[in-house]
Design brief:
- The chain is an all-alpha fold and about 600 residues long.
- The protein contains 25 helices and three strands.
- Strands 1-3-2 form a three-stranded mixed beta sheet, with helices on one face.
- The longest helix has about 30 residues.
- The radius of gyration is 24 Å and the shape is globular.
- Bound molecules: zinc ion (ZN) (2 copies).
- The site of one zinc ion has 5 residues, from α15.
Length: about 600
């Protein structure tokens, strides 16, 4: 699936442009668990669930398209107050409907779906009434993603999809008129980004025009298209210019701050992460993890010093010492022209390792396709996984890699040093195997559309981060101190994401402090720190999902290892854990310890 900006309620973790890990909801079929006679409460719930899903596709077209349901794609939803009110009423109606279900009489699996549905309904109400992003985040208003999805998802023959796109095009002027009427006090940062991303929307319409040309559409139909295209492009250009003017008038004192503050942060953390911790507790936990990582890194730096540093005098300051070894090792990287080929070469190697070490099963019939990131999705990310939606299980999954050509030479070098010989392998583990891609493969077999649809970002990112550690523990990389040092540097990034996000949004950390923190305490390159600063301005809470999910999964595994001692089997643990789909880790824990 492609990136579709949501204009109602919550912008999901997966849908923001330019994320490093764009993982859309997993594809799967809705099949009941075989063998068990469903109880009465389950049956009642399942019936309600199917009615709810049917209503959802109409009420929330962006979620529908994200899931690969294009039945209503011909009509572009207009993001005005009337549609927001209608959506809120829809959420309220279904909250009341699900209130009639006796939760404690449901089977464990259905209880999970119940919890996820309720969280979807409640959190979207919160997003609409309290978070109100539609007033201050103009990047929500971009039609590019949805048109690209219609053009490039194989849900119908191409001529039919083009007709759907042409019909949808009619709504574009009203869409941007509603956007202008909805925006009240935007942040400077989101306003600037929205102007930049308008170019991407225009590029997608150019692609549509090319497709129309190729189909030899003529006569009246062609005239209709030409008119709609002209009006749609004019609306985007006008919106972009309007935002540009708006931005000129904004000052730090008149614009809304991109920092969301403590109250909104805690509430958003509770809705998005669904962790047992508060945001502040997660932040405190990250501070402790940071100290642990740094201690391990110092030991590794000492161990590596004689062989790597060739007689250079060793400084006393631990961070300085670690930084010098990392700096030296980072020179070991591929050429820019080889980045693509190297990623392609590594994937089968990782697959073989997983098989030989009995860590997880993989479906050999679904190879991952490595490709250049589509232009409109390029942002600050280097790599991302793009998976088909919930009803498109047979579509291709892509590993998007942003090309480095055309970037300034120092930016290219900085990026290549960051994704050096060791870190590039960890990136592939994280994004692909056994990280995101393998997790999605397993989620596809999970018997719940709901879990795939309302997947938990902290579980998804937590699994990818957990898989890095698990691979190194299995001996991948020969237990080389270089590999472990780079692993900790990468892991420290996850930890520091949590610290950074909380510090910036709640504690008021400045740009200079943030960059100093990332470069001098997390050993990141300037390019990486600059990108992270952009991301922390555009998003909130999302950056904490990696660490909170990872620390919960690791703690759970260690707990089971202790309890089961000799009978603990790592592969079984992984398969079982992934079999529930992208549910919150807390719910998976409940399911796994019950059965
Ligand atoms: Zn990720
Ligand atoms: Zn170099």
């Amino acid at each position: 699936m492609t990136t579709i900006s949501r204009t109602l309620g919550k912008v999901s973790f997966a849908l923001f442009l330019g994320m490093i890990c764009q993982v859309s909801t997993a594809a799967q079929n809705a099949t009941p668990i075989a063998g068990k006679q469903p109880q009465q409460a389950d049956q009642q719930f399942k019936l309600l669930k199917s009615h709810f899903l049917k209503a959802l596709w109409v009420a929330d077209p962006d979620t529908a398209m994200g899931a690969g349901k294009f039945d209503h794609a011909a009509k572009l939803a207009i993001p005005n107050q009337q549609s927001r009110d209608a959506y809120y009423a829809f959420l309220q109606k279904w909250l009341l409907a699900f209130d009639r279900i006796k939760e404690d009489q449901l089977s464990v699996n259905e209880q999970t779906d119940f919890a996820l549905i309720r969280n979807y309904l409640r959190s979207n109400q919160w997003y609409l009434k309290t978070f109100r992003e539609f007033e201050w985040n103009p990047t929500q208003y971009n039609i590019g993603g949805s048109f690209d999805a219609i053009l490039n998802t194989d849900f119908a023959p191409k001529p039919q999809r083009i007709n759907i796109a042409i019909a949808r095009l009619e709504g574009v002027p009203a869409f941007y008129a509603a956007a202008k009427a909805s925006i009240r006090q935007p942040t400077m940062e989101h306003t600037r980004l929205a102007v930049q991303q308008s170019a991407g929307a225009l590029a997608v319409l150019d692609a549509l025009a090319n497709a129309v040309q190729e189909q030899n559409i003529s006569g009246h139909e062609r005239q209709v298209f030409d008119t709609r295209l002209r009006l749609a492009k004019a609306a985007i250009t006008d919106f972009s210019a309007w935002l540009g003017e708006l931005e000129k008038g904004l000052t730090p004192s008149t614009a809304r701050s991109f920092r969301i503050g403590k109250d909104l942060y805690e509430a958003k953390f509770a809705h998005d992460i669904q962790s047992s911790l508060t945001a502040e507790q997660a932040y405190q936990r990250a501070l402790v993890a940071k100290d642990d990582a740094l201690q391990n890194m110092e030991k590794l730096a000492d161990q590596l010093w004689p062989s790597v540093m060739n007689g250079v005098a060793k400084p006393d300051q631990p961070n300085k010492k670690i930084a010098m070894v990392i700096e030296k090792l980072s020179a070991n990287h591929v050429e820019a022209s080889q980045l693509f080929n190297e990623i392609r070469r590594q994937l089968p190697v990782l697959e073989q390792w997983i098989r030989e070490h009995d860590l997880l099963s993989l479906d050999p019939k679904k190879p991952l396709v490595v490709r250049e990131t589509p232009v409109y999705q390029r942002g600050v990310s280097v790599a991302s996984i793009e998976a088909p939606g919930v009803f498109r299980p047979h579509d291709q999954t892509y590993y998007n890699v942003s090309p480095l050509e055309g970037l300034p030479p120092e930016r290219v070098e900085s990026t290549l040093r960051e994704y050096n010989h060791w870190v590039l392998q960890i990136l592939n583990i994280h994004e692909a195997i056994p990280g995101h891609y393998a997790q999605l493969q397993h989620a596809n077999q999970s018997p719940s559309v709901i879990k795939a649809l309302f997947g938990n970002g902290a579980m998804v990112e937590g699994w990818a981060v957990y898989s890095e550690r698990m691979m190194l523990e299995s001996g991948y990389g020969n237990n080389a101190p270089e590999m472990w040092l780079m692993y900790y540097k990468w892991n420290l990034r996850t930890i520091c994401n949590t610290i950074l996000d909380y510090s910036v949004h709640v504690l008021g950390m400045s740009e200079a402090e943030a960059k100093d923190f990332l470069v001098n305490q997390a050993f990141q390159t300037q390019a990486e720190a600059n990108g992270k600063w952009l991301r922390v301005q555009y998003t909130s809470v999302q950056l904490t999902s990696y660490f909170s999910g990872y620390s919960e999964i690791l703690a759970f595994r260690e707990q089971l290892k202790q309890e089961q001692s000799a009978t603990f089997n790592l592969k079984q643990f992984h398969e079982k854990f992934l079999s529930y789909g992208s549910a919150p880790v807390g719910i998976i824990k409940k399911l796994m310890t019950k059965s």
